Amino acid sequence: MSHSRPPQSIMADMQEVPPVTKASIAPRKSRAISHHSDEALSINLYNSRRGKFTDSVNSGGGAAIPLYTPQERRRRDASPWTIVQGVLAPLQFFVFLVSLCLVIRYLATGDGLALATTSVVVKTIALYAIMVTGSIWEHEVFGRYLFAGPFFWEDVLSILVLALHTIYLAALVFGMLSSRDLMLVALAAYATYLINATQFLLKLRAARQQQSSAAVSSVGLAS
Question: Does the model's pTM come out above 0.85?
């Protein structure tokens, strides 16, 4: 028994098969995978992200954080201790410069021990005054006498400065060190004080820049 099909049936089957074209064999393009969320990525969103990146660069790797909150700024401006700090800080720095010259003069020539000693004592008293009043100011503004967040590392170094000045004063009163060794302790205290003063100056400079930027931004929004 033959299983061959008649020619007419074969021709009919061939007509039913769709022709093979380039379109039918072309590979399907895969949908591009987006790394963004399904939310619309507007230009505002992009600018916001770019702004955050710029802030982190300008602040050395982290978003710029204001030194004072609006409430802290109002308390700072209203506190009388702000004026006291503004007077004592440059006064102490002036005493520091005079005393530094007298200490170096004694170490270099051996002359002027009494003047150098007196100047270091005066500098130490000025330091105590600014530390006590500064702690009161810090409590009024930030609610803590020491180690408030914005001035934490400045306060840490201030404690070291205070300790070195106190060591000098104790050694002087109890005769624990020679005159030359006392002056070397004073130099160590002054070097630490200078670093600490630089910390505060940089912090206050950053605060002024942030305040100026905030003022410019508010003017831009108002316009």
Answer: no
